[in-house]
Amino acid sequence: MSTVSLIGNFVRDAQSFKDTLATAKNFDEIRKLWTSTRIEYSYDCADPYSPEYRQEVLNLYKRLTAEAYTPLNELTSTKQSTEQFDVGYPWVTQNLEVISQEMAKVVQAMRALHSHHLEGGRLIEFGAGWGNLAIPLAKSGKKMTVVDIDDGFLRRITKIAAIDGLEINCLKGDFLQVSKSITEKYDAVLFQSSFHHCLDFSSILDVIRDRLLAETGSIFFFSEPIHKDFSFPWGLRYDGESLWAIMCNKWLELGFDQDFFLGLMLRKGFLVSAVEAISDLVGQGWVASRGSSGIAFEKWILPAIHNDSFHSSGGSEGLGRFCRQESFLPGLENSIYSSYECVFHNFGLKDINIFFNSFDKDIHAKIPAGRERIVRINGQCKDVSIRSETYVPNEMYGNGDTRDIGVALKSISLI
Asked: Which domains are delineated in the chain?
């Protein structure tokens, strides 16, 4: 079921879906209804960073649940029987597909942390839940701190840690409240299926950046609903499982459009790269690193309109992306940083001139043939235009490539 609804129609259709769920005979039937339902809608406010937009989200939540949102609505342990809680999720489902997907999430996170050389780092996980990620990481020698609002989950993690001889520091409370009281620095901040439960997601990113994250640290987002085809910048999700979670459990189930998420992270001073998916089990994750640390340009995930303005280097490690006759970087007018520091490489056999437009001023730089050059660009504008002289690779190398490309942008950092 998929329609595009006004808010009133959406609430009506969501209630009808909830009534249908109540007639399901078993978990398999419930899962089929979850996966087959998608009731799209839209918000009236155009500015996703405004208080008015946030209030629209909260108003809709109240219409779906008949109560105002509070982080205490995220309590989950109280919704389980003692027997279910002792077994834990996903094991309690006895569904091998569900169990394999949850196990794959742990594998994905461990691979990502390993690839970022966090073998001996200090880690903090927000929304640890059942402890399915925190406990294996602690067993792997990581110094773990976990945050959760649900005291039942924290007691469960503490109990298992004691049995296994592990030390896991457990902090109880709302994400934003707890993060403001932490004095430690961490090499990695982890969100696994938890960032989308945080209404104050913008504020907590500020606190993480300024108080929690080590200078070379990163934020990891695993199994978060960040989608290219989301109907609005951010807000309550409209798939069947999310509607069930909102209406039946009163959880906050936010979703994010990918371009909004990338723009939000840039505002906060982070450059985002991908965490590889595990096919058929768990989707792509995300890692956000301080912009001042820089990033290989081919790894930076750009909003679609900016990404499409560059030529891919074909996946060759370290080549970056090639500039077209005109390419665009996202502007930094709302970011904590003001400028880009770019490393350009001219792979051609002749010098190439490039021009940057910022504040309606053209800045010129010549990139010598076969050489690199570092160029600083003022980014305090909506978009940064890079205009490049181009050449046809076929004319340079005789390889049959007929694209018009300029110099390659190899790496970039924020200053």
From this structure: 65-293 (3.40.50.150), 304-414 (2.60.120)
